[in-house]
Specification:
Layout (H helix, E strand, L loop, with lengths): L3 E10 L2 E11 L2 H9 L13 E9 L2 E10 L1 H21 L2
Antiparallel strand pairs: 1-2, 1-3, 3-4
Length: 95
C-alpha cells in the first residue's frame, strides 16, 4: 500500500493532546514536505505549547510522525490559508 501524508492540527487540553483537524495531502511526499516547511510555526515545541501542527505519514493506516511544530492562534489562521491554497494548487494545477 502506498504511503499517504497529512497535516494534523492538535491542541493541548486538560485531558491531554487532542487532534481537532486534519488535512489529507495525498501520496506525493515532496509536495507534503514542501507545504509543511512553508508553514509559519516554531520548531521549538515546549510544555507551554498549546497548538501544534504535525506532518504525518500513514502506511497501512499506521501513523508515522514526520514533523512537529508549534504555532500561535494567529499563525494557525495563516497556516490554514496556506494549506488550503497549496492543496488547491496541487490538485488543480498539478504542480
Amino acid at each position: 500500500m502506498e504511503a499517504s501524508y497529512e497535516i494534523s492540527l492538535n491542541m493541548k487540553t486538560l485531558k491531554g493532546i487532542e487532534t481537532y483537524g486534519c488535512f489529507h495531502l495525498g501520496h506525493d511526499e515532496a509536495f507534503a514536505r514542501k507545504l509543511y516547511a512553508s508553514l509559519i510555526a516554531d520548531d521549538e515545541v515546549s510544555g507551554d505549547s498549546v497548538i501544534t501542527i504535525d506532518l504525518v505519514k500513514r502506511e497501512d493506516r499506521v501513523p508515522f510522525p514526520q514533523g512537529l511544530r508549534h504555532c500561535s492562534y494567529e499563525q494557525l489562521a495563516l497556516n490554514v490559508q496556506l494549506i488550503t491554497k497549496g492543496v488547491f494548487k496541487h490538485l488543480n494545477l498539478e504542480i
